[in-house]
Specification:
This protein is α/β, with parallel strands linked by helices. The chain is built from 15 helices and 6 strands. The strands form 2 sheets. The chain has a 4-stranded mixed beta sheet with strand order 2-3-5-4. The chain has a two-stranded antiparallel sheet with strand order 1-6. Helix 2 packs across helix 3, helix 2 packs antiparallel against helix 5 and helix 10 packs across helix 13.
Length: 363
């Protein structure tokens, strides 16, 4: 079973479960608290925002199209937060409807049983300015990207045609707007530097084994985000509509939360707790089996609920956002639990607090 820890929710739940980032209108109530600059920070670890890179966008945009137009797990309601989101939704459907039957078949074989994270991870070391020829060459040569019973001589022309006919013209329209957002946010980070990993260490009481420079790439996505490591850089793919500072690090709070929770989520005590959840929580099991078993093993799924809850907590502590709707099954309850106990890492262990939360559910 695939256990992908570094992937964020990509609208793979039909019941309107949303990624942490970009859901301010639907999931959180904004209060008057905004980011402040850090007096003591290491410039080496301050984030950088980059524009769209074709090495990610070619397959990622098709993956979003697949989840919207084929599997139907990306519901129309998720794209109704803004006119821009809905125009993107309509663009995906127009592209899909223009595909021939054979092209739709190839699309299904590419994404039906393969996780897009694995495909993008295989392309992440390409240069940011890699053109369509370089990207297609890397896809064709990759031993990770599986074509199932499709042949390379069918898939590669399909990807090229999609790029030439649909993606490239759309990028020409969207990139000027996205590049303005990128410039604005990079300027904001110069004026108010924020070292997200040090902040998370302070808030969790856990030290990162290694520090990374956060690098956030824009994508065309309206919903979802993903993360990768490249050397000393921690890559996060963010949504096209991220245009304010208060939306910027929501995904990073989740992304880096995996590293913090991994320090204890595979020990014997947590494994026993996960076994208890399996035996006592039918809803938790059903949601995992239906929507997330391709992305997480069972222990990873139990951990993911805690990670997202802690990300909600950091959203509130730093940005002033109050989570009101769950992303998964127990993330909202864990976030509320942290507030109820007035979590203080100087006197409490995040590990023990996490264990206690789950154990209290079944007493």
């Amino acid at each position: 079973m695939i256990n992908i820890k570094r992937i964020l929710p990509i609208v793979i739940l039909a019941t309107a479960l949303l990624c942490t980032i970009g859901v301010a209108e639907n999931q959180k109530a904004k209060v008057d608290v905004f980011p402040v600059s850090m007096n003591n920070y290491n410039p080496e670890y301050v984030a950088e925002i980059r524009g769209i890179a074709l090495k990610f966008e070619l397959l990622d945009s098709l993956s979003e199209l697949f989840s919207t137009c084929v599997t139907g797990v990306s519901k129309e309601a998720l794209f109704q937060r803004s006119d821009e989101d809905y125009e993107h939704y309509q663009w995906m459907w127009s592209v899909y409807n223009a595909f021939s039957p054979s092209q739709k078949e190839i699309l299904g074989k590419l994404f039906n049983k393969q996780n897009v994270w694995l495909m993008l991870d295989a392309l992440k070391t390409l240069p940011d300015d890699a053109d369509i020829d370089m990207v297609l060459s890397a896809i064709s040569a990759s031993s990770v990207i599986q074509f199932q019973d499709s042949k390379h001589d069918l898939v590669i022309p399909f990807l090229r045609d999609y790029y030439v006919s649909s993606l490239s013209p759309y990028l020409s329209k969207r990139e000027p707007i996205i590049n303005k957002r990128m410039a604005y946010l990079n300027d904001a980070l110069i004026n108010k530097p924020f070292e997200v990993m040090s902040y998370m260490e302070d808030m969790s009481g856990i030290q990162f084994p290694q520090k990374f420079k956060p690098v956030l790439y824009y994508t065309l996505r309206s919903v979802g985000a993903m993360g990768f490591d490249i050397g000393n850089e921690s890559i996060t793919l963010i949504q096209s509509t991220v245009d304010e500072e208060y939306l910027l690090f929501c995904a990073s709070f989740h992304e880096y939360g995996h590293i913090l929770f991994d320090t204890f989520a595979r020990n014997s005590q947590f494994e026993m707790i996960c076994k208890t959840i399996t035996e006592n929580d039918l809803e938790m099991v059903k949601v995992w089996e239906k929507d997330f078993s391709m992305n997480y093993d069972w222990i990873g799924w139990c951990e993911e609920n805690l990670i997202e809850g802690f990300a909600h907590y950091l959203d509130e502590q730093y940005y002033g956002y109050i989570a009101t709707k769950p992303t998964y099954v127990y993330d909202l309850k864990f976030y509320q639990y942290l507030n109820e106990i007035k979590f203080d890492p100087s006197s409490m262990s995040l590990e023990q607090v996490s264990f206690d939360f789950y154990l209290k559910l079944y007493k």
